[in-house]
Design brief:
Elements lengths: L3 E13 L11 E6 L5 E6 L5 E11 L6 E8 L5 E9 L4 E7 L14
Parallel strand pairs: 1-7
Antiparallel strand pairs: 1-4, 2-3, 2-5, 5-6
């Protein structure tokens, strides 16, 4: 009989802007289960383009269990600006760079007060 353990996994990364873009606005970063599309975690990028996501993953204890995850970057209009994929297991840490397709007329997804 196997038991499932819920152990967070962490994805940290950096948004890579196209050449000529000096500064990125704060953008929304989401992690979704690649197969079913369910939202696992979301956050906003920092002013320097860094982000960190903590994913609550559950899997059978002691078994090799990896989840394919799609990381998406969106602006305030929910326009998809970039995405990347990674496979991660409960308790793992992954580093990921996400290249943005465009930065023309980007509206920040979050404006600090």
């Amino acid at each position: 009989m196997s038991t499932c353990e819920c152990v967070p996994a962490r994805i940290s990364g950096l948004l890579i802007a196209p050449e000529g873009c000096e500064r990125l606005p704060l953008l929304q970063v989401r992690a979704r289960a690649a197969e079913r599309g369910e939202l696992l975690a979301e956050t906003y990028s920092a002013a320097d383009g860094q982000f960190a996501l903590c994913l609550p993953l559950a899997g059978p204890g002691g078994a090799e269990f990896r989840v394919p995850v799609r990381v998406e970057v969106l602006d305030c209009n929910q326009t998809l600006l970039g995405e990347a994929a990674v496979e991660i297991a409960p308790g793992d840490q992954a580093a990921l760079n996400v290249s943005l397709s465009t930065t023309d007329d980007l509206a920040p997804a979050y404006t600090p007060v």
